[in-house]
């Protein structure tokens, strides 16, 4: 009897705490941001939000982290149902699908041209004639990261890359203990630099895929050669493997993005960052995709609340804050003033990063890009798994991309 | 002859232990890997070492969880949600399972089947309409919405378990109780329910675990970080290409510990042999 | 007996559960049925309209790679293999643990339950790491202690699929073990003692006492287990990293997920979900009819 009384009391207490104070009405003084920032970026964002709240008493700002894919699907579901965060933060390619679904709001009417001119053009993402995203960071780009303890001068060309790679690939007793180079073999995003180095690109400006090209074939062949002929890269690698190899000092170089640098420094690797090499036979630089990362406005934000949300956006875009972020994370700012600052112009990593951005190609914003990735992935993996020839892969990529785009737009 | 059967028994017992130990190692090993990750000083998922305790092992990640992160809040939220789901789940399953075991009523067969059918639809596809519905009901960002969904997720299985267990308890026990002057509810509550303790334990455990580790629904409904449950907090250490494996591993271990404790505590009831005694009588 | 009172009692027992289930499942289900006949996708996310059974036709005829039938076959293999191992290992361990002579039962039981206790998305990632060619402990053990060549687990479709199955077998057996344990507890020991007096063999006791008596609890567990395994998105999605290599490790439910959330094809995904639903419903009806039929034969 006493036992059941006890459990009843427990239950009642639980229920009471359940209903007490967890319901909240939509609040005009509370701004919510959904983002997919890494932890070190989040810390900076939280700090900047605190500064904003201190300057604007009565206003609260909350940032919620979601993984990139979950951010997209979650935002779509919430926005269709008429809810969701006020601001959504991420790389520019999410603008395409969001615009088509009409769940983000054009931003140009909220800003004067004079203000927008203070940004470098790549920092503002326009789509179908409207401004949909304002970025605080530019890049998200792949570069060649190298371990300074293992090599001093990074390779400038593909020939140098192979030569350096061979020197740095060391085997002991028939087992390779150190590779010259590694990267993620599962995501076609990491194939783009090879494709562009051999003159290929994913699509035309109208979103028609151009995957069945000599550039794709030669790029794939080049990777195959790196693995089978020159034997300077591992046989199997996904993001985590490549990352671990480099962190363990078992790979002298890695192709990875600007997001990874801080982690390598933390792991105690003495890193250098260099632009990806030039392909001698084509005379082209390997060009990674460049994308700004920034904020878009949810269409469901009530009209009366928009000025407040925009003031937060402007606050976060201050050149001083961007510069502060750049100093801590080696990211490329988007305000002209910050880009031209002494620090950005003279920091070794940022200088090379800027050079890589200059040589890179902007990531297309159209929703079709999604279909392109999905079409490239299987064949890219099949080539690296040895079950497809580069020619076949290029043909399959193109055919699959065409079909996926049709499915997407049916 | 006697010696022979005795040595046979010893041999069988030894074989039992060996097999059990092998399976325990298999069961525990991948989890030890998570422990290893949580103890590594740098954020690393992979390593070529087979050692369980890594080089330069450190509890930093655990300390960080409690000092730098609102981990205690997440923990409390999870306990709250899982606790209510467990109680709700046990009460409802015990009642409904009993009806399905003992009585004949219209739609019984259909009811039992429809319980099963709720599990047949890919759950991710229910998310969008559920979300729209919860918005209409004003239940977004409340535990109430999450708890209703978790309870519903666990119920079909728990009702079936309870029904299956009640079926093994002879009806003569209730008949005897009715003769002694109990009404229907009393016969159920006082006589049958205590006998069904092992099944109730499984029901409680299952309901608890449904809520404890759930992520997808929680992520969509609890959009205020003050309301976050443990899995949401845990997932926040994972980011696209730079996961904080150390914190991730540490919080995974801490998420697992309460379940292990719970099972340890409840296992007493599992072996209590309540049913055994009364059927004898 | 007061009949009205009796009916009221049954309603009191049954209605609350079904109210909750109805609220959580019924509306979303009907919504999905409607969507499955619509063109809801990227271009028609808010302004979708009913277009008839075209999405269903697409499910069966669209030359997706791999196509519906291949994925369906894989899903069946996935389900059957997983469930067989879950039940066999689970019941086997429960039988071992249920022996009177065994000491340290709570410890064994607790260790064996661990795979169930730890959240799936955590171990899925750990297992993916363990299957890694270079770093994975499975290959390290294979090469170091067994002197066998390392296996490229995640690079080719068959091995990757086996890797997913191994992971899920590991995850699933504790559940069946607990269920079987719960059932074994309820078997009166006198039955075994009586059988011992009759000189029954170990196998005889298993076949004639144990298995028939744990059946009422195991049958629903197996039916549910089938449905769950069939629809288990987590493991395939996380271990194979969304169907790698080359989208060849999909089961139907990961296919749905991909269609809905990667390509925004909500109409198509809803139709495919309905197909999954009908397949599972058909299976369960047949399975339960079969098991009921054998029950009557006792």
Please identify, by name, the CATH architecture of the domain at 67-263 in chain C.
Orthogonal Bundle
Q: What is Rg of chain B?
A: 24 Å
Radius of gyration of chain C: 23 Å
Shape of chain B: globular
The beta-strand count of chain C equals 0
The proportion of strand residues of chain C reads under 5%
| Biggest sheet character of chain C | none
Note down, in words, how this protein is organized.
The complex is a heterotrimer of chains A (410), B (281) and C (298). Chain A has 410 residues and is of the alpha/beta class. Chain A folds into two domains: 26-139 and 291-362, Periplasmic binding protein-like II (D-Maltodextrin-Binding Protein, domain 2, 3-Layer(aba) Sandwich), CATH 3.40.190.10; 142-287 and 367-409, Periplasmic binding protein-like II (D-Maltodextrin-Binding Protein, domain 2, 3-Layer(aba) Sandwich). Helices cover 46% and strands 19% of the residues of chain A. Chain A has helices at 2-19, 39-55, 68-80, 95-100, 113-116, 158-168, 192-197, 214-229, 239-247, 261-266, 306-316, 319-329, 336-339, 342-346, 348-359, 368-385, 390-409; strands spanning 30-35, 60-65, 87-91, 104-105, 124-127, 130-139, 142-147, 170-172, 175-182, 251-257, 271-274, 278-279, 284-285, 289-298, 361-362. The N and C termini of chain A lie far apart (65 Å). Chain B has 281 residues and is an all-alpha fold. Chain B folds into two domains: 1-58; 67-280, Orthogonal Bundle (MetI-like fold). Chain B has helices at residues 2-39, 60-68, 71-102, 108-117, 127-136, 143-167, 172-179, 184-195, 197-212, 216-221, 230-235, 245-270, 274-280. Chain B is globular and about 70 Å long.
Sum up the structure in keywords.
heterotrimer, A: 410 residues, alpha/beta, D-Maltodextrin-Binding Protein, domain 2, 2 domains, 8-stranded mixed sheet, 5-stranded mixed sheet, 15 strands, disordered N terminus, B: 281 residues, mainly alpha, MetI-like fold, 73% helix, globular, disordered C terminus
